[in-house]
Write a structure and sequence with these properties.
Number of domains: 1
CATH topology: Alkaline Phosphatase, subunit A
CATH class: Alpha Beta
Helix content: 25-40%
CATH superfamily: Alkaline Phosphatase, subunit A
Number of helices: 12
Order of helices and strands: HEHHHEEEEHHEEHHHHEHEEEEEEEHEE
Distance between the termini: 67 Å
Number of strands: 17
Mean pLDDT: 90
CATH architecture: 3-Layer(aba) Sandwich
Low-confidence stretches: 15-25
Length: 465
């Protein structure tokens, strides 16, 4: 042993003694925590369609739109802003782009554009006429995914991992699977930790064989060398943290280093879909070039929850391929559906076959609905505008009462026919299905206890088993 090696090893040895003392008071932020109430759901997959999905083209059968196609839409009552203005201006009603049929024992109406998802009609529970707080994409995306239309709040995934921790300590507790074509509106803020400790932000998995940068260690470095480096770095960071307050970001970084080290042995196997059978790959549409990209995301989500990842967010829609169909709705909606229908249907089928659906809450949402009319009277390829009053959300698995429906919209699918359903009610219901009380899941920030539902939401018991 030369002089340099002797000093290096001695320094690490002394550091290990100090580290043992420092670590005595450190708590793992992602350790498993008990739910507030007993439930079946342990994990959640949140499927988000960016751009504002047209509810009357997929999930709301409205014969009046066919009967009055091309006519002026009556002024929408009980609406303000753009919807009230656009419905009063010259417009024409656009009929749904495909026929509807009833499915399952529940008789659920669904578009013919969703042949794979419609097979699960009796597993789904629908919430109709959900209102978001803004008619523009950015604020609406934030509202649906964080509970607040302004940036800076914690995402749903952050809240759930904050409340429950993660079952698999070798993988992130909150994973984001983004669209290969680009970033979502709002960027990383929609899966950020906000005012929660930094450990609860989502981890983005990119497309390809290396979903995380530097997933594979350098060939010249052994396990022992990397472990020694991390021990030294951890000791220095812990020493720095022990002398200070408000160090959640540093603590999160320490935990991230350790997680990254463990992931180098676990994640490569996770992302290797070649281990799946040919039948499973076909189930998700991996043999279809149109369905393959999102089908791959859905299959990855199943593999993640199967391994104990607490919350997986699937994002579909980016750039010009979002569900923002202001023009040519008859051409664009079928393309969107072809991209996602088989993957989502395959996910539900696979979860059920593996006995995972009962333990996994699947949520489908967009940031808003669409209008039944178009204000452009000269185009031969009409589309639909934004509608903050018409969002449809469905849930399946976990503690969901399959075949249930709550709420409903008027005959033109503009807004709730009766009582308005604010987005915070949906958030309160998601937390309840995961065994979390919205009133107990709080964090003190800027002198006020914050929660996902802010002023509080009504748990929609009608969709719970």
């Amino acid at each position: 042993m030369n002089r340099r090696q002797f000093l290096f090893n001695s320094y690490l040895g002394l550091g290990g003694l100090a580290l043992t003392d420092l670590m005595a008071g450190v708590k793992n932020p992602l350790e498993v925590k008990p739910a507030h109430m007993p439930v079946k759901a342990k994990r959640c997959i949140f499927v988000f369609m960016e751009g504002g999905v047209s509810q009357m083209d997929l999930f709301e059968h409205k014969p009046e739109l066919v009967k009055r196609a091309g006519q002026q839409m009556p002024t929408a009552g009980r609406t303000v802003g753009e919807i009230a203005t656009f419905s009063a201006a010259p417009n024409r009603i656009i009929p749904p782009v495909a026929p509807f049929r009833q499915h399952g024992q529940s008789g659920r109406w669904m578009s013919d554009l969703l042949p794979h998802m419609s097979k699960h009609a009796d597993r789904m529970a629908f919430i109709h006429g959900v209102k978001v707080d803004n008619n523009n994409h950015g604020p609406a995306v934030y509202h649906v995914l964080t509970g607040n239309q302004f940036p800076g709040s914690a995402s749903i995934g952050g809240w759930i991992t904050y409340g429950l921790g993660s079952e698999n300590q070798d993988l992130p507790g909150f994973v984001v699977l983004g669209d290969r074509r680009g970033a979502t509106i709002g960027g990383a803020g929609v899966w950020g930790n906000g005012f929660l400790p930094a450990a609860y932000q989502g981890t983005l998995f990119r497309h390809g064989s290396t979903p995380i940068v530097d997933l594979h260690r350098q060939a010249s470095m052994s396990d022992e060398q990397q472990r020694a480096d991390l021990d030294l770095l951890k000791w220095l960071n812990e020493k720095h943290s022990a002398a200070r307050t408000n160090t959640s970001e540093l603590e999160a970084r320490i935990a991230a280093y350790e997680l990254a080290f463990r992931m180098q042995s676990k994640a490569p196997e996770l992302v290797d879909l070649n281990t799946e059978s040919e039948a499973t790959r076909k189930l998700y549409g991996l043999d279809d070039p149109i369905a393959e990209p999102f089908g791959r995301q859905c299959l990855m989500a199943r593999r993640m929850v199967e391994r104990g990842v607490r919350y997986v967010m699937l994002l579909h829609g980016a750039g010009g391929d979002r569900w923002d169909d202001h023009g040519d709705v008859a051409g664009r909606i079928p393309k969107h559906c072809k991209e996602v229908d088989q993957g989502i249907g395959g996910l539900l089928t696979d979860l059920e076959a593996r006995g995972l659906l009962e333990e996994t809450l699947v949520v489908w949402a967009s940031e808003m609905g669409r209008t039944p009319f178009d204000n452009n009277l000269v185009t031969d390829k009409p589309g639909r505008d934004h509608n903050q009053y018409g969002l449809v959300v469905w849930m399946a698995g976990g503690n969901t009462r399959g075949g249930a429906a709550f709420g409903g919209t008027d005959e033109f699918s503009v807004r709730a026919a009766e009582d308005e359903i604010p987005m915070r009610d949906v958030h309160a219901t998601i937390l309840r299905q995961m065994g979390l009380s919205q009133d107990r899941l709080t964090v003190l920030h800027a002198g006020r206890y914050k929660k996902l539902t802010d002023t509080g939401g009504r748990v929609i018991e009608e969709v719970l088993a």
